[in-house]
Amino acid sequence: MSGIRLEKAGGFVTARFDKARGNAIDEPFTQELLKVAGELGADPGVRGVLLASAHPKLFSPGLDLVTLVEYDRAAMERFMRVFAEAVWALYALPKPVVAAVSGHAVAGGCILSLTADYRVLKRGGIQVGLNEVKVGVPLPWSVALLLRASVPPSALTQVALLGRNFSDDDAIAVGLADQLADADGF
Known about the structure:
This protein is of the alpha/beta class. The chain has helices spanning about 20-25, 25-40, 65-70, 75-90, 110-115, 140-150, 155-160, 170-175; strands at about 5-10, 10-15, 50-55, 60, 95-100, 105, 120, 130, 165, 180.
């Protein structure tokens, strides 16, 4: 396993991201996400899933650029296909999914949080957003669809085209979070 710890309590499972370098998303982590989503979706004993992080300051910083910079075009295409497949497998889970965003969730980390049915964001300046456009990376069509399912039309420009990060009440206003929680609530 490359960084997801499953913690079971009755019919509920916490899928806790616990990968070195703050849960940066690389190919082994993505393969594991896909596997975990399949297992949780198929298990009739699982009634709900919580996505969380073992790192107090990071939910996920997004794609592991240090690793991915070494990929050639074919390897990058393979990785992006598996990442999209994992995102859609999480989004399609036939169980309620909640994301406990207790640390920054930017770029791919924000995408992972958007797969949840409900997102709880820790108060105090935790940043969540899609900053791909600021570094010259277009949003894949599949991510744009996921974003449109979560964010009100009036906020799409700020989130997708301007690449802003949001925190606290601003994250709720644009639809990247559904609820705020105090630090002691995590």
